[in-house]
Design goal:
Alpha-Beta Plaits, two-stranded antiparallel sheet, two-stranded antiparallel ribbon, about 10% strand, binds FE3-S4 cluster
Length: about 100
């Protein structure tokens, strides 16, 4: 699956949402998250992020290696939700995101 790495934190441009054909990009308080079991690996979201935060999971740069599992882990216990637009924002961020210092564009 594709994942959203550290640059999205607090920036949350959301251009990616409009590109996803399966509506699997969910909003958290400080970052967006791709549901790995709903993502169809089309790659459409990756080039539109203005801060280059989206990567195929195996291609996340080493400096953000902690983020390879963040999207998967935030959906543990939530499972497949069937589409972000219907579900609305997630209640909480992954702990790694919550622990990040605030960042601005
Ligand atoms: Fe975040 Fe980039 Fe999407 S900043 S919300 S991953 S367009
Ligand atoms: Fe969606 Fe395709 Fe990205 S399924 S999350 S636009 S890789």
């Amino acid at each position: 699956a594709y994942v959203i790495a550290q640059p999205c934190v607090d920036i949350m441009d959301k251009a990616c949402i409009d590109e996803c054909p399966v509506d699997c990009i969910y909003e958290g308080p400080r970052k967006l998250y791709i549901q790995p079991d709903e993502c169809v690996d089309c790659g459409a979201c990756e080039p539109v992020c203005p801060v280059e935060s989206i990567f195929f999971e195996d291609d996340v740069p080493d400096k953000w290696s902690d983020y390879r599992k963040v999207d998967t882990e935030v959906f543990a216990g939530l499972g497949q939700l069937g589409g972000a637009s219907a579900v609305g924002p997630l209640a909480a961020d992954h702990p790694l995101v919550s622990a990040q210092a605030a960042q601005a564009a």
